[in-house]
Amino acid sequence: MTEPLLEVDDLEVSFGDVPAVRGAGFRLMPGERVAVVGASGSGKSTTAHAIMGLLPGTGHVTSGRIRFRGEDVTHAGEHRLRRLRGREIGLVPQDPMSNLNPVSRVGHQVAETLVAHGLAGRGEAKRRAVEILAEAGLPDPARRARQYPHEFSGGMRQRVLIAIGLACRPDLLIADEPTSALDVTVQRQILDHLEKLTQDLGTALLLVTHDLGLAADRADHVVVMSDGQVVETGPAREILTDPEHEYTRRLVAAAPSLTTTTHRSAPAAEPVLEVAGVSKEYRIRGGGGALRAADDVSFTVRRGQTTAIVGESGSGKTTTAHMVLGLVAPTSGTIQLDGTDVTAGRRTARRAMQAVFQDPYGSLDPMFTVERLITEPLRIFGIGDRSSRRARVAELLDQVGLTPSMAQRYPNELSGGQRQRVAIARALAPSPRLVVCDEAVSALDVLVQDQILRLLESLQQELGLSYLFISHDLAVVRSIAHDVVVMRNGRVVEQGPVAQVLGSPADPYTQQLLDAIPGAGVFS
Amino acid sequence: MARYLVNRLWQSALTLVLASVIVFIGVRALPGDPALAMAGEEADPATLAAVRAQLGLDESVVVQYLKFIGNAVTGDFGKSVRTGTPVSELLGATLPVTIQLAIYAMLVALLLGLAAGVVAAVFRGRWPEWTANGFSLFALSVPTFWLGILAVLYLSVQLGWFPASGYVSPFDHPLRGVYYLTLPAVILGLTHAAVVQRQTRSSMVATLTADFVRTARAKGLGRGAVIFRFGLRNSLIVVTTIVGLQLGGLIAGAVVTERIFSLPGIGKLTLDSVFTRDYPVIQAVVLVITAAYIVINLLVDFLYTVIDPRMRVSGRAS
């Protein structure tokens, strides 16, 4: 029997005195693809970093063992680790925007890996770097190698990072959420290419991801982590179709991409919001013409229902949402709320439309208590007095599933999911006719995301709310929307009832988006 | 890129013109009458008027300004009211001294500041950081004049390591010139070194925890390469800004240091001319310092594009 390439035994990692990984263990055979799946805080990235001796700050391994090709590297010195890093284990990090040195040419960043390991002299490394970039799927590599990271798109940067990770032909490549910052269609291309490369080179892959569907698509084995512990391991397909552990079951049930939900049927209802032929042009600096961020966009939101706008970055979905909210003035077109023109973004319209934004860490003022946050729109619009506002806070907190005692807390004392509940309560406070959710669940872990989606659904049924739901995630849209608007490059590609658009898409782009949902193939 | 540079040049020129107007008006807003200062307190009205006419003070402010600026462009700043020496001659004698002192002091500040900043960032939370931070706290809080006096007292008078005062042109005697300037430059540079240390430290701390630094380590790069090629290079953007702002301040700040070490620089000239309301000299000195400030900041902006490739495209950091 062959020796395992990597063995992690009973690994414990702490930051200061706070344990992050508590007895994690798994093994990886040469050439094998293993995915470590878990929510944020599950210890999956920490485990990956511990393997390469890259724990940040006060992080340290307190017990357990990491063996690479039979050699114990748990507490290896800097000298040994330097050979391990890059040469024997490559890393593809998460965020392509922040992982390249902004002041250094791309080709140089690949070449310096080769030079650091003595695999090539400077001139030779420069030449090899171009080849390696070409291999990673970078078009026109000779020219692009001389460029700087800011001249690259996110997908192209990720290709550069893959090139760096594989430059020295390591035996193992650790990919830490390699595509979670990218659009789905780009994600798919990158993962396809990564798969082909590792296969051709015989490189083993340790894929760290929060996305169970992606893990199932791309790995032979899946390791599920929760709270610093491994709760379940097994062949990818088995874990998804027949999860044993309670946590895995919940994870599978909550993953929107894995559930075959019945589409929400939409009874006929009058429109609340009517957007007609709306465009937004931005002049490009330096007289470079105009950019049409939104081009002749028309759709409606019906009372008590959800219309979702779905698209990738640059599709114009957020610009459209901002125009509806009156935050951005449209260049042309009209926006009507309940038959009144609100294109100019009047104050009364502001009250009738409230927003929930993506980042619950950024959208709540850290200096305000929860009560003050929720009552802010009421105070702005002069609704009620002190005591009635207080009563309203209690009512709203109850509606979004928080206890009244939370009212006096500050945002930093709350979890991400709780914060998003506060953001929803704040949006509901002035009893708006339309709630605009701009990527409102995109920053949340799968389980929390599922809870918030259910909360939005039940609030809609209870209070008859109408939602304009902006998202890049087709799987989420599929589970929450009645109507779907698919946008690309500022234009509406296709729209209609969710069952029709996503069930039998008329436009190839919609089909492409559907195909790119990770894990889609597992159940079909 | 070229467009950006041209724009910046225009902006600088405009700033310079505005600055000259402000300087001109500012000098005239000073209390005291130069004609009175020149003719003496007891002078009769007729003499005063004659002196005024001689100095051109009887003409309208606009005409005075236009004359001033027209001459200034050709390097003619008029004559000192007090001594009658051409101002350009006074500047020619004093400016090089101050520039040498400022550059030397800035080098000292960069050397000490960068070193102490890197040490503080790399050895965060351990004794080298505390030492480096202690040094900068000391340098920031102790007034330059007091430090200067102490240095003269102990290092020059008691130990005899450095000359207590005097200036030797480094162009005549390179070694002696540098030697004579060393103590003043160190004293003047210390405060600025402290600021550079603080900026370098905080900027490096942020850079060293950045994702791309972790990626560099994951490539197998050595500690030194990570700290200097990645950490320091990226921190230099912030440090360059600070150094630019400080260089201007250094020229102005040289006044005190020049006084302590009796250096015949622009600082001494400024003090003397302010006390005697020597309009032409004050005007010229302030204008020259302002111009230096603007030129230095222009250079800093160009330097950004060298350090940070992101600036080359749009002319501003993303």
Can you put this structure into words, describing what you see?
The complex is a heterodimer of chains A (524) and B (318). Chain A is an alpha/beta fold and 524 residues long. Chain A is built from 20 helices and 20 strands. Chain A has helices spanning 44-51, 78-88, 106-116, 122-135, 141-144, 154-166, 184-201, 212-218, 236-241, 246-254, 317-324, 347-352, 370-380, 386-399, 416-428, 446-463, 474-480, 498-503, 508-516, 520-523, and strands spanning 6-15, 18-28, 33-37, 59-68, 71-72, 89-92, 172-176, 204-209, 221-226, 229-235, 271-283, 290-302, 306-310, 332-337, 340-341, 353-356, 434-438, 467-471, 483-488, 491-497. In chain A, a hairpin with a 6-residue loop joins strand 11 (271-283) and strand 12. In chain A, helix 6 runs parallel beside helix 7. The radius of gyration of chain A is 25 Å and the shape is globular. Chain B is mainly α. Chain B folds into two domains: 1-74, no CATH class; 88-307, MetI-like fold, CATH 1.10.3720.10. Chain B is 78% helix and 0% strand. Chain B has 13 helices and no strands. In chain B, helix 5 (87-122) packs parallel to helix 12 (279-307), helix 8 crosses helix 10 (223-260) and helix 11 (266-275) packs antiparallel against helix 12. The relative contact order of chain B is 0.14. The model of chain B has no long low-confidence stretch (mean pLDDT 83). Classes of the chains: A alpha/beta (524), B mainly alpha (318). Chain A binds chain B through residues 52, 54, 56-57, 78, 82-87, 90-91, 93-95, 98-105, 112-113, 116-117, 148, 150-151, 161, 164, 167-168, 285-286, and chain B through 3, 209-212, 214-223, 225, 229-230, 233-234, 307-310, 313-314, 318.
